[in-house]
C-alpha cells in the first residue's frame, strides 16, 4: 500500500516536471497552429471556404514558394558540404583537440544567430559599403557589385542563411561521425580497401541517413526563416514568409485568411521535411547502435 502510494506520488511529480513544457507547447505551438489551419479554410465572415487554398496556386504565390524552396535547398546544400567537412576535420582530422571545444561552442551560438543582428552583420561586411567590399575595391581593384553580386538578392540571402546553416550541420553530423567505429575502418583495410573505398563503400553509406536527415532539417530551418530575410531585403525578395507577413500585418495585399492559407502551406512543407528528418534520424540511430 505504502509502495503504491509512493509510486503514485513519484508519477505525479514526474508529470509536474514536464507540465511547464506541455503548457508552453499548447499555448505557443498547438493552439496557434490550429488557429492558422482553421483560418485557412474560412473567409472574413467565418464561413467555410476553399478560396484561400485555391489562392495558393496563383502565379505570384507559387513564385514565392518556388523562390523559398530554391533558397532553402541552396543554403541547405551549402551548409551540408561545408559543415560536413568542418565536422570531419574536427572529429577525424588532425586538428588540435582544444580547438574542437571552441569551434563547437561557436557553432552552438552561430546556429541561433539570425534576424536583425545577422542582417546588419552581413550589410556591414558585404554591403555596398561593407568592409570586405571596400577592401576588395581599394586594395585589390575588384568591384564586387560591378561583377554582378548583390547582397539583396537570391545569392546574397542564400549566403546569409549559410551563416547559421553551416554550424547547425556541424552540431547535427558530429555525433554521427563520432559513431564511426575504428573496427569498421580496420576491417576494410584488412580486406585491402583504400581510404577512398572505405569512405565510399562503408562510411558514407552508414552516414547517409544522418546526412539526408540533416539536409531536411536545414531545408526546414531556412524555409521558415523570416526575420533575417525581411531585415536584409525588405519586400524586394518575394519569399513565402515575407508574403505571409504582408498579408496578415495589413500591407497593400492585406488578406488575413489568405495569410493563414500561406501559413498552412508552410506548415505542410516544413511538416513533411521534419517527418522525413525524424524517419532518417531513427534509421541513423539504429546504424550507430
UniProtKB/TrEMBL annotation:
Keywords tagged on the record: Cell membrane, Membrane, Transmembrane, Transmembrane helix, Transport
GO biological process, any: transmembrane transport
InterPro entries: MetI-like (IPR000515), MetI-like_sf (IPR035906)
Topological relation to the membrane, as annotated: Multi-pass membrane protein
Chain ranges of the ABC transmembrane type-1 domain: 65-277
Compartments (UniProt record): Cell membrane
GO cellular component: plasma membrane
Transmembrane parts of this sequence: 12-37, 67-91, 103-124, 144-164, 206-230, 258-280
Family of this protein: Belongs to the binding-protein-dependent transport system permease family. CysTW subfamily.
Listed name of the protein: Acriflavin resistance protein
Amino acid at each position: 500500500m505504502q509502495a503504491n502510494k509512493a509510486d503514485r506520488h513519484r508519477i505525479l511529480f514526474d508529470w509536474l516536471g514536464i507540465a511547464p513544457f506541455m503548457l508552453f507547447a499548447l499555448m505557443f505551438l498547438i493552439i496557434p497552429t490550429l488557429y492558422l489551419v482553421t483560418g485557412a479554410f474560412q473567409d472574413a465572415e467565418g464561413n467555410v471556404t476553399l478560396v484561400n487554398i485555391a489562392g495558393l496556386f496563383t502565379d505570384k504565390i507559387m513564385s514565392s514558394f518556388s523562390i523559398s524552396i530554391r533558397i532553402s535547398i541552396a543554403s541547405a546544400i551549402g551548409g551540408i558540404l561545408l559543415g560536413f567537412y568542418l565536422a570531419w576535420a574536427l572529429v577525424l582530422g588532425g586538428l588540435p583537440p582544444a580547438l574542437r571545444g571552441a569551434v563547437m561552442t561557436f557553432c552552438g551560438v552561430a546556429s541561433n544567430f539570425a534576424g536583425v543582428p545577422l542582417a546588419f552583420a552581413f550589410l556591414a561586411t558585404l554591403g555596398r559599403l561593407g568592409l570586405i567590399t571596400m577592401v576588395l575595391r581599394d586594395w585589390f581593384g575588384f568591384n564586387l557589385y560591378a561583377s554582378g553580386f548583390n547582397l539583396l538578392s537570391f545569392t546574397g540571402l542564400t549566403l546569409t542563411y549559410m551563416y547559421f546553416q553551416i554550424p547547425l550541420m556541424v552540431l547535427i553530423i558530429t555525433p554521427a561521425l563520432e559513431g564511426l567505429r575504428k573496427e569498421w575502418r580496420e576491417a576494410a583495410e584488412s580486406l585491402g580497401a583504400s581510404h577512398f573505398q572505405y569512405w565510399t563503400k562503408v562510411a558514407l553509406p552508414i552516414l547517409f541517413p544522418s546526412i539526408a536527415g540533416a539536409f531536411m532539417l536545414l531545408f526546414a530551418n531556412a524555409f521558415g526563416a523570416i526575420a533575417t530575410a525581411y531585415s536584409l531585403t525588405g519586400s524586394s525578395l518575394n519569399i513565402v514568409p515575407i508574403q505571409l507577413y504582408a498579408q496578415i500585418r495589413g500591407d497593400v495585399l492585406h488578406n488575413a485568411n489568405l495569410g493563414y492559407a500561406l501559413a498552412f502551406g508552410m506548415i505542410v512543407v516544413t511538416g513533411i521535411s521534419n517527418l522525413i528528418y525524424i524517419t532518417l534520424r531513427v534509421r541513423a540511430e539504429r546504424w550507430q547502435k
